[in-house]
């Protein structure tokens, strides 16, 4: 590993003087008695503080699911709100234990940034939103437009690539904070807003007149969003990954928050093993948890479908379809490896 | 307490005697401080290398040659998403320099006017200037930036209702669009003529100063300089066959197309930094002028100089000695405050560097570049101002 004296010296300013990333994150988490999750500063449906100040959302429920798996208590969580630019430094420096911040899994983040990705908890794609008044039907008509985008995102890169590939001109209007991008779009500083489609749905809600804005049909990129952990701690990485798989598997089994207790009496050995009621199972202890870890997740948070519907599904203001995020048995991509 | 001065030093020094030896004590504490600093530095270094290797991130400055992949809205040099990260940081650096230089210029002009205004005998002018200073000096600069960005510029009309201004200019909430000059063949004559005019002006000014020193006769330098600087390029323009055309902004489907645009982000940052820093400069100027002994002004009036000449020839040259050193700090502050442009999306050094940091994950390297660049700008400014100060200092005989 190559490094310079200068960068190492200055690094103290960035990484802090205290001990940062520790190898055994699970031990640290147990010692401090809560999970510290790096989340968005505020994206309705994914991670945002509600009126009473408590955090809710899809990403937040994932954080609570991890806490439920470890402590059997979804309230043992703390959140580090970050902008798109600060999220990676926050995880690298050990400010948080896990990143649940609608973050796209890319090869460079998986390698050069020193993170591990394995699961995709939301299959997303980048889209465009325009005011109806502009009468735009397709993204290919956007030549010459001013486009609002958040800096330090894959969105910013896809935008440049898409306009270049289609030989279109545009003027980027770039802000660091999501709130500033929203304000600029509302003020008419730009014609087009681009981010992940889920984000566009969320943002449209916060506009003064949501019906005056259209989300264009084009999806210009693959944005598999998932949790990230620091490299070098496989046990912690496994816990985070299998928390997601447990949520998905529970939906496939038909186990919900409401019926999880009676499911314990199920005759199905797969379900019995999953819930940790089969004799001599090591399904949880091998992870460093208790054998009823999956039961605790479902009991406290619900299954994947419930988490989805509660935060961003058809019954919420966001009204997002399951689409690619339906189970593989229903034509989607959500698929969990066998839990055995 | 005078005892120890008269007692003779013992032949064999005891340990206690070292404690009472000021020279030894001084050396001891200096060595101790040095050791603590070295240990502290080593701890930082060791801890960082440890954390870096633990976080499994790549390090080094090779990433600067990679393709950036993101676009930047305002750039002084050609830049596209195919350019390198290094060039993206360079774009930010030049934008920082741009806003710092025009900001320093404007802040100095406003500061001078306000500073002199506070000393005015006209009650209204003096009070207005006082209000200006108190308002801008007591509000955080970030708020001043938001004030300009959201309060003033945000109140401008939408792009499709642009205000049409004279000379084909348009004003809207996406900035000021103005005709872009396109230089044709033979256009080089114009800047060449301007250069000749400037050199000639300097020569005339020197000659006039020398003549005044020798004979006391004054010469209307100012009028001649204006005639030269405007006239010569004009003559060159017509001689070159009017090689200058303009690209006018026109309403396109989304934006105004053609022409050149000054973006509101730049204007907001520039105005905010200028107005904010000007309030401090005004106080510096006032202090400098108040620091000139009253006898100087009285002597000047006794010699029959008019008040305006007294200010220009007697008070200000002496006040400059007091003004320039604190002025340097204000210039440095303005340059460093330009990093707040990131809040309104102006692509200066912190903004483009931040994006680079996020795309590459090279936090330590990018932060080190920031530190080195701001340090270099500040040192260069200081050196220039020290040179200027030395020139302005009173020549003592």
UniProtKB/TrEMBL annotation, chain A:
Keyword Transport: yes
InterPro entries, per the entry: Bact_solute-bind_prot3, Solute-binding_3/MltF_N
Keywords on record: Signal, Transport
A matching Pfam family: SBP_bac_3
Limits of the Solute-binding protein family 3/N-terminal domain: 34-263
Chain segments annotated as coiled-coil in the UniProt record: none
Example GO biological process: amino acid transport
Source organism, top-level taxon: Bacteria
Residues of the signal peptide: 1-23
Protein family per UniProt: Belongs to the bacterial solute-binding protein 3 family.
Name of the protein this chain belongs to: Amino acid ABC transporter substrate-bindnig protein
Automatic annotation (TrEMBL), chain B:
Cellular component aspect of the GO annotation: ATP-binding cassette (ABC) transporter complex
GO biological process, one term: amino acid transport
Membrane-topology descriptor: Multi-pass membrane protein
Transmembrane stretches, start-end: 27-45, 88-116, 128-149, 188-209, 221-240, 367-388
All residue ranges annotated as the ABC transmembrane type-1 domain in the record: 93-385
Principal location: membrane
Domain of life assignment: Bacteria
Entry-linked InterPro entries: AA_ABC_transptr_permease_3TM (IPR010065), ArtM/GltK/GlnP/TcyL/YhdX-like (IPR043429), MetI-like (IPR000515), MetI-like_sf (IPR035906)
Gene3D superfamilies: MetI-like
Keywords from the named record: Amino-acid transport, Cell membrane, Membrane, Transmembrane, Transmembrane helix, Transport
Localisation per UniProt entry: Cell inner membrane; Cell membrane
GO molecular function: transmembrane transporter activity
Signal peptide annotation: none
Protein family (similarity comment): Belongs to the binding-protein-dependent transport system permease family. HisMQ subfamily.
UniProt protein name: Amino acid ABC transporter permease
Species: Pseudorhizobium pelagicum
């Amino acid at each position: 590993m190559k490094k310079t004296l200068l960068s190492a010296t200055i690094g103290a300013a960035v990484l802090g003087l205290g001990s940062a990333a520790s190898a055994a994150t699970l031990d640290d988490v147990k010692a401090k008695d809560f999970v510290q999750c790096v989340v968005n500063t505020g994206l309705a449906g994914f991670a945002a503080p509600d009126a009473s100040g408590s955090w809710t959302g899809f990403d937040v429920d994932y954080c609570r699911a991890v806490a439920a798996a470890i402590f059997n208590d979804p309230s043992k969580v703390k959140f580090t709100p970050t902008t798109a630019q600060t999220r990676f430094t926050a995880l690298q420096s050990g400010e948080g234990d896990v990143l649940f911040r609608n973050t796209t899994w890319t090869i460079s983040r998986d390698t050069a940034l020193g993170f591990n990705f394995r699961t995709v908890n939301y299959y997303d794609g980048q889209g465009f939103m325009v005011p109806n008044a502009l009468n735009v039907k397709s993204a290919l008509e956007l030549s010459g437009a001013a486009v609002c985008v958040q800096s330090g995102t894959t969105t910013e890169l896809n935008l440049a690539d898409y306009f270049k590939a289609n030989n279109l001109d545009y003027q980027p209007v770039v802000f660091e904070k999501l709130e500033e991008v929203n304000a600029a779009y509302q003020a008419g500083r730009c014609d087009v807003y681009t981010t992940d489609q889920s984000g566009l749905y969320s943002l449209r809600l916060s506009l003064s007149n949501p019906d005056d804005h259209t989300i264009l049909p084009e999806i210009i990129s693959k944005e598999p969003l998932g949790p990230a952990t620091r490299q070098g701690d496989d046990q912690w990485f496994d816990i985070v990954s299998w928390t997601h798989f447990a949520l998905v598997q529970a939906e496939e089994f038909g186990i919900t928050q409401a019926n999880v207790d009676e499911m314990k009496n199920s005759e199905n050995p797969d379900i019995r093993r999953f819930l940790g009621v089969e004799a001599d199972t090591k399904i949880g202890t091998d992870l460093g948890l208790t054998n009823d870890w999956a039961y605790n997740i479902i009991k406290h948070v619900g299954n994947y479908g419930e988490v989805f519907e509660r935060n961003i599904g058809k019954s919420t203001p966001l009204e997002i379809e399951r689409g690619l995020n339906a189970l593989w048995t229903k034509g989607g991509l959500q698929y969990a490896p066998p839990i055995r | 307490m005078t005892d120890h001065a008269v007692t003779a030093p013992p032949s064999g020094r005891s340990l206690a005697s070292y404690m009472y030896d000021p020279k030894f004590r001084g050396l001891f504490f200096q060595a101790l401080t040095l050791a603590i600093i070295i240990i502290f530095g080593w701890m930082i270094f060791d801890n960082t290398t440890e954390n870096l290797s633990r976080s499994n991130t790549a390090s080094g400055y090779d990433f600067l040659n990679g393709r950036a992949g993101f676009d930047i809205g305002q750039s002084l040099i050609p830049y596209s998403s195919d350019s390198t990260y290094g060039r993206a940081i360079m774009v930010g650096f030049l934008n920082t320099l741009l806003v710092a230089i025009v900001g320093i210029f404007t802040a100095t002009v406003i500061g001078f006017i306000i500073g002199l205004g506070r000393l005015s005998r006209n009650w209204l002018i003096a009070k207005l200037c006082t209000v200006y200073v108190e308002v801008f000096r007591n509000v955080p600069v970030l708020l001043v930036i938001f004030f300009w960005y959201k309060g003033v510029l945000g109140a401008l009309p939408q792009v499709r209702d642009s205000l049409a201004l004279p000379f084909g200019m348009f004003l809207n909430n996406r900035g000021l669009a103005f005709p872009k000059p396109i230089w044709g063949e033979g256009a080089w004559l114009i800047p060449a003529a301007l250069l000749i005019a400037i050199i000639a002006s300097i020569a005339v000014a020197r000659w006039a100063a020398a003549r005044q020193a020798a004979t006391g006769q004054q010469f209307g330098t100012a009028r001649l300089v204006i005639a030269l600087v405007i006239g010569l390029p004009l003559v060159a323009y017509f001689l070159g066959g009017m090689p200058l055309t303009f690209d006018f902004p026109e309403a396109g489907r989304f934006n105004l197309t053609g022409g050149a645009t000054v973006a509101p982000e730049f204007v907001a940052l520039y105005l905010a930094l200028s107005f904010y820093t000007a309030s401090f400069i005004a106080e510096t100027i006032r202090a400098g002028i108040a620091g000139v002994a009253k006898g100087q002004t009285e002597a000047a009036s006794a010699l029959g100089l008019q008040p305006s000449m007294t200010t220009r020839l007697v008070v200000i040259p002496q006040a400059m000695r007091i003004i320039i050193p604190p002025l340097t700090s204000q210039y440095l502050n303005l340059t460093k405050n330009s990093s707040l442009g990131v809040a309104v999306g102006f692509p200066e050094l912190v903004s483009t560097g931040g994006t680079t940091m996020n795309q590459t994950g090279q936090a330590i390297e990018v932060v080190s570049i920031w530190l080195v660049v701001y340090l270099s700008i500040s040192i260069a400014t200081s050196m220039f101002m020290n040179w200027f100060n030395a020139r302005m200092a009173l020549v003592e005989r």
